[in-house]
């Protein structure tokens, strides 16, 4: 993800690095998708957190409000990603986001991501389902499906996801296109059902992080010798 007002060169490099990590994630983690999980109910007990904070707090393993590179690595491993990829992804993501989310007055090196300030890492060309503070905007979320769900009103096919991404591209911020593409490819790979559709409920579970929790629970119950 990239800041809304970065320097042009920094924005391009940041978006490409995150896009690369997330696209790799969509490939590495495709085998551990949530297709067999029940639909999440979309609720959450974290009433004092924004949806974006809930989304990233899954990776805050000790729940102290600060994501260290080690915790991000552990979060990737917990949902079934390989160790080598989890290491590279944690490094890439923290390099890009830590400087954006550190509290005012913080001194370098910027290696940790602060949940309280994660909204500062929101990028352009997104759906608007998070507002500028990271709060969930139900109307914008519903709009995704009203505009782009042509086959099923409550779900998106991969082609419909691509249609949405094309429509949402900010012509004044082309550096953000790759990050948006990578994120939604990841969302689709992680949460599409057995028929190839990303349902509204599962997409909702990505926004508030509930899918990550359910996936970790599924992985933890898997027999060590199983490849399923």
UniProtKB/TrEMBL annotation:
It comes from the Eukaryota. It holds the Pfam family Caleosin. Residues 1-31 form the signal peptide. Keywords: Signal. GO terms for molecular function: calcium ion binding; monooxygenase activity. The keyword Nucleus does not apply. Belongs to the caleosin family. This is EF-hand domain-containing protein. It comes from Sorghum bicolor (Sorghum).
């Amino acid at each position: 993800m990239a800041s809304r007002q970065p320097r042009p060169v920094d924005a391009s490099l940041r978006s490409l690095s995150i896009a690369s990590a997330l696209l790799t994630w969509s490939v590495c983690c495709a085998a551990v998708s949530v297709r067999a999980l029940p639909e999440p109910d979309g609720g959450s007990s974290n009433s004092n957190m924004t949806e974006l904070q809930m989304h990233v707090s899954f990776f805050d393993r000790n729940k102290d409000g600060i994501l260290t590179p080690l915790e991000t690595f552990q979060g990737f491993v917990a949902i079934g990603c390989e160790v080598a990829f989890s290491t590279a992804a944690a490094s890439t993501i923290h390099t890009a986001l830590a400087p954006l989310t550190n509290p005012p007055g913080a001194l370098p090196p910027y290696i940790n991501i602060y949940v309280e300030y994660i909204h500062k890492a929101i990028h352009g060309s997104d759906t608007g389902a998070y507002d500028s503070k990271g709060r969930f905007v139900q109307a914008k979320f519903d709009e995704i499906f009203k505009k782009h769900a042509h086959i099923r009103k409550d779900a998106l096919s991969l082609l419909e996801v691509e249609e949405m991404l094309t429509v949402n591209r900010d012509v004044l911020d082309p550096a953000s296109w790759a990050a948006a593409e990578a994120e939604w490819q990841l969302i689709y790979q992680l949460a599409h059902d057995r028929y190839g559709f990303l349902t509204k409920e599962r997409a909702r579970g990505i926004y508030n992080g509930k899918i990550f929790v359910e996936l970790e629970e599924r992985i933890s119950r898997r027999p060590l010798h199983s490849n399923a």
